[in-house]
């Protein structure tokens, strides 16, 4: 008989992203991958300044999950977003155009 007690398949479970308000970041539970932000305009604007995923975890979609968490937080707290991080502005937003309305109006880049 094969022993299966205690075995847990987690390959299909997405990693949990948590908000670390003290460090101004969203991060994986192991704290290895994160997206840093700065609050601007009296806390009404979230400036996403840096995304980091260690090389051992690249290609798993973590950067996108971090961005989604940040944009969901911004939306639920009535914040607009400045995509200062090049991953957010050049990769994530073009792949997720429905989130562009959350981008701070003074930071919109003309695509015309």
TrEMBL record:
InterPro entries, per database record: Acyl_CoA_acyltransferase, Gcn5-rel_NAT, GNAT_YJDJ
Domain of life: Eukaryota
One Pfam family named in its UniProt record: Acetyltransf_CG
Limits of the N-acetyltransferase domain: 16-104
Name recorded for this polypeptide: N-acetyltransferase domain-containing protein
